[in-house]
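Repro case for the chain-ordering regression, as requested:
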Amino acid sequence: MSKKGTGLELPRATVGVSRWRRFRAAVDWPLIITVAVLCSIGLLNLYSATYGVRHHKKFDYQVQWMIVGTILFVIATMIDYRALVRLAWIGLGVSVLLLLVARLLGAPAAGDTNHGSTYRWLNIGGMGIQPSELAKVMVILVLARMFQDSESGGVPKRVLLLRLVALAIPIGLIAIQPDLGTATLLALIVLTVGFLAMPSVWPMVYLTLGGLLAIPILWESMHEYQKNRILGFIDCNVAPTANCWHTQQSIYAVGSGRVLGKGFLEGTQNQFNFVPEHWTDFPYSVWAEEWGFVGSAFLLAIFGFLLVWIINVALSARDRVGAVICVGVAAMTFWHVVVNIAMVLGVAPVVGVTLPFISYGGSSLLTFFIAMGLVANVSLRKHGY
Amino acid sequence: MLLKSGSGSSSSGSGLALPELHRRLKWVALVSLAAFGLLIGRLWQLQVMRGESYYERTVSNVVKERYVPSVRGKILDRNGIALADNRPSFNIYATPKSMTPEVRADLVRMLGLGDDEVVKIDERLEVGKKRDPKIPILVLEDQGRDRASIVEQAGIQLPGVEVHHEPYRYYPQGALAAHLIGYMTQMTTNEADKLANQGYDASELVGRYGLESAWENYLRGKKGIERYAVDARGQRLDDATAKTLIEGERMVPPVSGANLVLTIDAELQRLAEKSVSHVGAAAVVIVEAKTGKIRAIVSKPSFDPNVMTGHLTHAEYEMLKTDPRKPFIDKALRATYPPGSVFKFTTMIAALEDGQAAEDEGITCVGQYELAGTTFRCNGTHGKLDMVQAVQHSCDVYFWKLAERIGLDRISEVAREYGFGAPTNLGLNGDSGGRIPTKAWYEEHQKYKVGYATNASIGQGDVEVTVLQMAMAYAALANGGKLFVPQVVERIEGSDGHTIVAYQPTVAREVKTPSDALDTWRRGMYKVANEKGGTAYDHGHFDLMPIMGKTGTAEVRKNHKKDNDERDLEGWHPTRSHSWFAGWAPAEDPDLVIVTFVEHGGSGGRIAWPIASKILEGYYTKIRPLHPVGPVDPKDPKDPKLPVAVPVAPKQVP
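-- result from build under test --
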């Protein structure tokens, strides 16, 4: 890879150039700009999404979260990822602990009455935090740690199994919160990283098949509302629930944007709240209604570019750990984007999966800032930092 | 910042950090492109291919249309007293499309609806479904504040159910002149279909009886259409927002209906109704002798139009329907009755016109009369009488003898000249023509017998008339021969009070009766009411002024077996004679013509006459006193000094 070559040569070839200038040249600007563009679109969209329903405070909160996120991004970039990876298991342990605490102390989220009591939130200083979001980052770091080990000749099958079980614990805890969306997403991240980083894909194929076979068992243990979401997705008439209505209204919103959109703040589906809670799970429908096919495709293209860029960083990473981190972040981003937009477009059931940097909410936002920080970290280190 | 050489710092043997990723890169690309391609394809499908139809749907999501009911015209008496008005009410509408069984159950439970109401709601929703299931239909009219607030607060729990604050038809005088005013009801499914192209909405009430029905097109006005915007919960958005969302007119304002100003005098009407309160079934018609304008028109038994208009329960309806006195048939102008002796003027006038008799001709009444082997019995044995006395005592024999000379068809001719046998053209409640038999008519139905003329001459047999026809005929007798078309609507006013149309009295025809023949009859009428031996005078004197009158006791056929089982209701019994009185006051300068009729009430002198007397007495002492107390305003159109009709000059059409 020529890029890697120049990256390594750069410090040597520019003797006398100040450390700051060398650092500035090594920083992954395309990544930062992409994230900044996404954040801008997110804020613009949130402004519209919360305009008609007078939730303007959400906009202020989101700005605050973005400031905090930027700080976390810088921290996640500066601390060497190899040092972070060493603490991965501890980090996962902490997030499992937080999940347990949320389970024991957590109260149902405000306004979340239709799901019965859920235990997704942990109250820290007046702000609700979802420990499951932190778990995503930790799982990615643990995966990096695992594949770093497997690099040197592989580990015994027993150890591998043990590690898989260890990974299954947070997933299981999240699933019984109940937050099937996040649990499924975590499982997808693990599977995707496994497929892309394991020397042989067959263990992952078996695992996937096993997971698919477990679906009937999972189905039986699911809550009624969860079943209805999926049934409602398959056929609105089978289970005419609120979710079905969400999806229907979301499709109307997207479709009614036509080619060029209705214009900023002009989306009637959005402004008059036909798609409930559209600022968290359905911001894409707001965007699609107001900016049309052109805007929708543009946003999708930005996500596409982000993914290509992260994979590119993975390919040019200086070590296996960095590459696996990038693959993990790419997988997380990919599945978030695809599942969320598919849900908005009515081709996937309604699950609580956010759209990175566009959805309102601190936990999701901070997670993605940290994740992107880790990618920037890997990108920076290839230059010898 | 530089990393010390540590674990994982070195690349794998291939020189690549993650060779597996490089190997599987094409799979990554393939899966990613497939996923993104699917999303883009779906976006294309939704936004580009189906965009227009979804756009339409989001507009209809937000923009709703609703009818704005027009304010129905009032019905006022001649002095401006409201007989039919509108008052604010809460109407509950439901949208058939949103009315799932669950919502319906919620609605029934939350409002605590009775069985009758549930049936009504289902019927209306059925009507609404056929019309347009997305447009709310009126299911419960005129509801209380409590139910209105339940619906308003239910919000999304009762989707598609709305409360509207709308004018509601209201009859401030209750049952006063109920048959004349009529009432309103919801349309039937058939009517809704038929009237849809006339701009009716299936949820509207429609005039069902009386003036409400006959003058529907003037009263209803034109409903408006309002287009407004709602949010997801169906909550109405403010006007500023609506303005930005709705292209074109947001409001086509309704046009109020026209007011009907009647010739009816509400006070006189009330007096007349009160005067028949003691009898089971009756009709009273009071008209202005010189104009044919109806001042009061009563049909008893009656109903409360307020109850009929939307509040009638099934039980109440059944009771009204099964009443043998048939409350829904207007006894003043729809039902026909044998007139009895009040009809005798036709026989007399025919005989005088033909020169077949003279006023001073004496005929001896022996209490019975023989013709073609049949014995007819008179109501008394009157001895020798002249024509005037025959009227005074209502001697049948005298008129039978006249009939023998002139024949049935001459009586019929005069009767038809006075308006019998054809509808009066009031155009209300199925105004009947009645029946004036002729020889030809009898030949058609059965064989003619000479006795039929005998019966017809005293208003019996197959002669059938309406009370209104009798009033118009007596008005002609009173005013010297002008047979008027009865008039009940004085003028039509716009909702702002300006006259749109003023109606003039219409003369149907000038009768040919010579004035001396009229005078003979009038002298008879005078004696009836003012001299001893008069069939009215013997049952009560009228002291305020000399008046004219004629009583009638019309026998009914008693061979109806079923009738004998009927109940006796407030003096009403199906075998009893009909009681008539027809006359006018004052005798010399006629103002009001009054006909009182008591169905199966008995003797005309004993039953119908006191009622007429009471009405006239009340009118000339309280409503229009002959001797007013205190100063009189000369400008007062109701100047009470003269008991003469002062026709209000109708305003010119602008």
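Ordering looks correct now. The two ends of chain B are 100 Å apart (CA to CA).
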